[in-house]
Fold these 2 entries.
Entry 1:
Amino acid sequence: MGHDRDRVISISLSEAEWQAFVARQPRPVDWVRARILDEVARGSLAASPEPEQRNSQFTRHNLQS
């Protein structure tokens, strides 16, 4: 059995918000999936520091300010 899992995202929207969104994006699931895949692609192109390194850099910056 593989380790791959499907992930599900649930977002609570009012009916008015949903209707406004669907009016602009008639295929909302495809739109959200495309945005996520865009982020994944951008993340793999730009190597970012590990979360611990980002947090320590943020802390050092704030302490120097």
Entry 2:
Amino acid sequence: MKKLLFAGMLLLAMSCSRHTEEMTNVIRVGISSHALTKATVEGTSDENKVNSLQVFIYKKSGGEFVFEASANAASGEVTVSVTGGEKKIVAVVNETGALPFQDGADAVMNAVNSLKENAPNSFLMAGASSFTVTPTLRSVSVPVDRVSARIRLVKITNSLTNGLEGKSMSLRRVYLTRVASGSDFKGTPASSDFYSLTGTGTLLDLNGTPVSSSEEKSAVGKLLLKSVSSETISNGGSLELDVPLYAYPNDGTVQKTRFVAELQIDGKFYTYPIEFETIQGNCTYEIDELRIRSIGNPSNGDDTIDDGEDVPVDVETATFGIDVRPWEIKKVSNGDDGKYTI
């Protein structure tokens, strides 16, 4: 599925001189919102937040586009002067590191970035576009995509059967495992390294070795783990939630990203993992309803993921429905009712 663009665009308002090729234009660059459709959903204010903006403009010289001008600011607006003619523009949001802008627009969009550079209120975003500066041109829009994806649990239902009728449950925490660590700004996976986060916060690499950097653990942990002080869910009851987690694009060729819900049932802990074939950037994967019908993988609630704790359970144990929204709706379920039942 083709990625849709993030609910934001760059607007360039240009004041033009009377000249053509040699004219100089002062461009104001700011952020505004797309109109929402039935196939998209708006992000939160934190997910849309612009903490910094970098703009790189390239002019056509012969048959190539070469660097002409750049600007940056600690907000959603910058100004930059450019000449007339054909242009390419790249905009990068919330990236604080150096970018290879002198090497061209493609080099910027192909630059590899890391999940750890994101935060719940500072997501990396980027976009590119082409336009021609003329004396009558006053505005240009550039679509901007988030690199990351959102995985959000919306509702959980106690549908315990097979001798478990009458048993209540509570949700303790949700977390992600086997999360890709790198991507370029176009959302193409660009690393064979993966993060897994245990239920109590230990960050592991692909080999299961704890990550030693406290800064890296803190940054990634805020995206991959949410503790939930859930009220008791009686049999037949449901709990409405808004629990977002964040992952990087993953084509599933090395590892498949998994969402894990850990519940307490009858005094014991169980995990209910959901495996995603692929993860696409700038999409939101909505678990509209997770219906628990049986006992999941046993969990001792400690600081490691033991064998079997993040193994996907079969369809007789739970069901869920997933909407994929770039931030476009794409239904994924294991039943005709649009839910995912485990």
